[in-house]
């Protein structure tokens, strides 16, 4: 059975990402009349001066982002010509290896203006890891920060040597630019060189054309939670589509789009559910409007009154890592809607709280560890965070208990969402009405997205039946770079089929209304003596335990056979005392035993019971907040094995 989004979408297919985002500046007539002045208002605010290596940085508007992008592009061409090198264009790659910067997007878009692609690299990666990525994408240059400069230099040299997996070394080390203006290799010098080229260089760049559906704009790396990261190829067209999809789903949390309101955002579905979608016209009747009221709410219908705030009153905090597809896409949405935001390089609770207080932040995207701090840290009481009424969680599953704790303490409503890098990444997002009528779901499919739910034999399932989720839509990736095996596994029937679906590896249920409930990762399901055990079911039970601050459940190899043992890794609320030098091992053993007994008492089937508990100071997580389950298994050794119960 084919599930369709209740929202139609016909995204532009012939417009590059940078032209789409800069359209309101380049063509003022395309702007909605009430929005034209917003292109010059401060939009991207830098990190507070006492927490940054760029204390002189100032907020920049959308017009200034465009100016920076084109000057950087012109500078890349000028410096290349000065060295007698070929000009930048299709096939070239700029690797951005940097923490969040307020002008990060200008660097990305500047490379795209030349016709090149951009690879997003995790700044926490060590030189050998970065070298591998540079070889894989064929990087021509690196844009980094002063803090990561030495690692970038080492990685650039290492990338010239042949690597594993048949990746040949680069012909020469990538050139390195640095965001900080005071650095000897600052990109400011490239930007200045671009400015000196004058109007002719700008006109030449404006004539550069890409094939939006065929040319790769962004290369992002999958999280690698269950294996080695793969390079995901995202086209200009897929990213433009996902910007529109995400904006539609966020209409109650962002300023009005600068353009396209009547084309993509005013229509509502003439449907009473996802299974009976009909065509939609530009004008809808009162009856259709009434039907739409039963579906996810819009700004005017928000139950907490946030929707009553004037659209121009939104101010966001950008904390998601921009090297991650999720963070990058949300940055693009900010440009498309001129929704101002302060950009932080990483999560530090005091800096986060201070920024919320100073800027009267209304909304931010977070990951569960941040919500955990908001729910439990005493530091929160030192700041006025009353302006923050909404947050959206992503990257890792959001527990009902954590959501309730944040709302009870601060009055903040937390919505969940679902995405993956391979879908640019937004697939669905909750809004406030979803919390009321479909709790514990991640919303409905984004506009223009289709899905199947499939069992282990490839049979299509219907509403409320559990199976693997297959997806397709205008935001779907082109495929993995240099990885034929992964592409064969990912696409059904094949990567070359225009009607192909992407296998997500996620186990879900979709109800008759189209609401998606994620139950597990296919790779995470534990095989215990022929039975399948759901880690998320056990994790939900653990989160109900008062002493549990964070947890994860995975399968540990049984030394007696080829089976897996359901094993919990837990961070306790009083972990400092239990992990200190004076920690009492007997007390730790008792804590493990008590947790296991409590959870197992609530599990009906014997095969679902926990066979062990390991207490940790913290869980290993990616920078986007996902738990790295592959790294947990190394901790289930020694004394922990004594916790096995058969």
Determine the N-to-C terminus distance: 41 Å
Strand content: 15-25%
Structural class: alpha/beta
Number of domains: 3
Helix content: 25-40%
Cα Rg: 25 Å
Shape label: globular
CATH homologous superfamily designation of the largest domain? ANL, N-terminal domain
Q: So how many helices? A: 20
Strand order, sheet with most strands:
6-5-3-4-7-8-18
Which fold name is given in CATH as the topology of the largest domain?
Answer: Rossmann fold
Provide the CATH architecture of the largest domain.
Answer: 3-Layer(aba) Sandwich
Uncertain runs with pLDDT below 50, 5 residues or more?
Answer: 269-311, 638-646
- Mind telling me the CATH class of the largest domain? Alpha Beta
How many strands in all?
Answer: 26
Return the average pLDDT rounded to an integer: 88
Q: Describe the largest sheet.
A: 7 strands, mixed
Characterize the structure shown:
The protein has about 650 residues and is of the alpha/beta class. It folds into three domains: about 5-10 and about 240-520, 3-Layer(aba) Sandwich (Rossmann fold); about 15-210, Rossmann fold; about 525-645, ANL, C-terminal domain (GMP Synthetase, Chain A, domain 3, 2-Layer Sandwich), CATH 3.30.300.30. The protein is about 30% helix and about 20% strand. A seven-stranded mixed sheet has the order 6-5-3-4-7-8-18, sandwiched between helices. Strands 1, 16, 17, 19, 20 and 21 form a six-stranded antiparallel sheet that branches. The protein has a six-stranded parallel sheet with strand order 2-10-9-11-12-13, with helices on both faces. Helix 2 packs across helix 3. The model is unreliable at about 270-310 and about 640-645 (pLDDT under 50).
């Amino acid at each position: 059975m084919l599930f369709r989004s209740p929202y139609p979408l016909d995204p532009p297919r012939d417009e590059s990402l940078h032209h789409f985002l800069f359209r309101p500046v380049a063509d003022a007539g395309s702007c909605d009349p009430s929005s034209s002045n917003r292109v010059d208002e401060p939009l991207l605010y830098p990190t507070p001066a006492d927490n940054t290596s760029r204390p002189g940085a100032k907020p920049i508007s959308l017009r200034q982002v465009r100016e920076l992008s084109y000057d950087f592009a012109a500078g890349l061409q000028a410096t290349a010509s000065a060295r007698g090198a070929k000009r930048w264009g299709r096939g070239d790659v700029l690797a951005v290896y940097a923490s969040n910067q307020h002008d990060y997007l200008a660097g990305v878009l500047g490379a795209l203006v030349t016709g090149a692609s951009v690879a997003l690299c995790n700044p926490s990666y060590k030189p050998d890891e970065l070298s591998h990525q540079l070889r894989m994408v064929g990087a021509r240059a690196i844009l980094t920060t002063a803090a990561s400069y030495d690692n970038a230099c080492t990685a650039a040299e290492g990338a010239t040597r042949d690597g594993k997996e048949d990746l040949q070394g680069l012909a020469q080390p990538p050139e390195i630019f640095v965001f900080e203006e005071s650095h000897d290799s600052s990109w400011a010098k490239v930007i200045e060189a671009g400015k000196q080229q004058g109007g002719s260089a700008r006109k030449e760049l404006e004539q550069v054309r890409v094939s939006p559906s065929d040319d790769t704009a962004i290369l992002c790396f999958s999280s690698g939670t269950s294996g080695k990261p793969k390079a995901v190829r995202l086209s200009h067209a897929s990213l433009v589509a996902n910007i529109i999809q995400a904006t539609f789903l966020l209409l109650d949390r962002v300023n009005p789009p600068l353009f396209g309101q009547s084309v993509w955002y005013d229509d509502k579905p003439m449907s009473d559910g996802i299974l009976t979608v009909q065509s939609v016209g530009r004008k809808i009747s009162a009856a259709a409007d009434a039907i739409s009221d039963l579906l996810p709410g819009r700004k005017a219908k928000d139950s907490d009154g946030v929707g009553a705030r004037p659209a121009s009153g939104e101010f966001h905090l950008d904390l998601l890592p921009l090297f991650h597809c999720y963070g990058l896409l949300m940055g693009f949405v900010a440009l498309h809607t001129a929704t101002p935001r302060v950009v932080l390089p990483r999560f530090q609770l005091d800096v986060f709280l201070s920024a919320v207080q100073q800027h009267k932040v209304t909304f931010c995207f977070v990951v569960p560890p941040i919500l955990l701090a908001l729910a439990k840290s005493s530091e929160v009481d030192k700041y006025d965070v009353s302006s923050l009424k909404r947050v959206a969680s992503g990257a890792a599953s959001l527990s009902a208990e954590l959501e309730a704790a944040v709302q009870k303490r601060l009055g903040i409503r937390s919505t969940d969402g679902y995405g993956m890098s391979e879908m640019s990444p937004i697939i669905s997002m909750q809004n406030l009405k979803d919390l009321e009528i479909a709790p514990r779901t991640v919303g409905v499919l984004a506009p223009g997205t289709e899905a199947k739910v499939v069992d282990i034999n490839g049979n299509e399932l219907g509403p409320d039946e559990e199976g693997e989720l297959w997806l397709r839509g205008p935001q779907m990736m082109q495929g993995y770079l240099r990885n034929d095996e992964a592409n064969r596994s990912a696409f059904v029937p094949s990567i070359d089929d225009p009607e192909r679906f992407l296998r997500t590896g996620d186990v879900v249920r979709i109800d008759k209304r189209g609401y998606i409930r994620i139950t597990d990762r296919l790779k995470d399901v534990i095989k215990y003596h022929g039975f399948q055990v759901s880690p998320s079911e056990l994790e939900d039970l653990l989160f109900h335990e008062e002493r549990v601050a964070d947890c994860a459940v995975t399968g540990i190899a049984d030394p007696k056979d080829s089976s897996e043992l359901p094993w919990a890794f837990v961070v306790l609320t009083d972990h400092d005392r239990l992990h200190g030098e004076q920690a009492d091992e007997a007390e730790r053993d008792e804590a493990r035993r008590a947790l296991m007994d409590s959870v197992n008492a609530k599990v009906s089937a014997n095969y679902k019971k926990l066979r062990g508990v390991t207490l940790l100071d913290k869980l290993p997580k990616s920078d986007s907040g996902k738990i790295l389950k592959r790294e947990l298994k190394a901790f289930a050794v020694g004394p922990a094995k004594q916790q096995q119960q058969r």
